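Long-time lurker, first post. I've been practising inverse folding by hand and with some scripts of my own, and I keep getting stuck on stretches where the C-alpha cells seem ambiguous. Below is the full C-alpha cell string for one chain I'm working on. Before anyone asks, I'm not after the true native sequence, just a reasonable design that respects the backbone. If someone could post their per-position residues I'd love to compare against what I wrote down in my notebook.
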C-alpha cells in the first residue's frame, strides 16, 4: 500500500514538474519573434516611448488604432464624458 502511494506521488510530482517547465518555456519572450513581427506588420502596431521628456521610439503614433484592452475603453469613455 505504501509503495503504491509513493509511486503515485512520484508520478504526480514528475507530471507537475514537466508541466511547469513546459509552461515557462512556452511563455518565454523571444526577442527575435517580436522584432520579426514589428518588421513584417508595420500597419498593426503603434508605439511612442517618452523618457525624461525625450521621445525614444515614435512609430505610427499619430495613426488611429483600436484599443487593446477594456481598461482603455473605460478610460476613453470617461475622458469623452
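-- Answer (accepted) --
I ran through it position by position. Result:
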Amino acid at each position: 500500500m505504501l509503495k503504491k502511494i509513493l509511486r503515485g506521488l512520484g508520478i504526480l510530482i514528475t507530471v507537475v514538474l514537466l508541466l511547469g517547465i513546459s509552461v515557462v518555456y512556452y511563455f518565454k519572450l523571444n526577442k527575435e519573434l517580436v522584432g520579426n513581427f514589428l518588421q513584417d506588420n508595420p500597419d498593426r502596431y503603434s508605439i511612442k516611448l517618452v523618457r525624461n521628456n525625450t521621445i525614444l521610439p515614435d512609430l505610427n503614433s499619430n495613426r488611429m488604432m483600436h484599443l487593446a484592452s477594456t481598461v482603455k475603453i473605460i478610460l476613453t469613455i470617461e475622458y469623452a464624458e
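A couple of notes from the structure itself: The chain has a mean pLDDT of 82. The beta strands are 47-51, 54-59. Happy to go over any region you disagree with.
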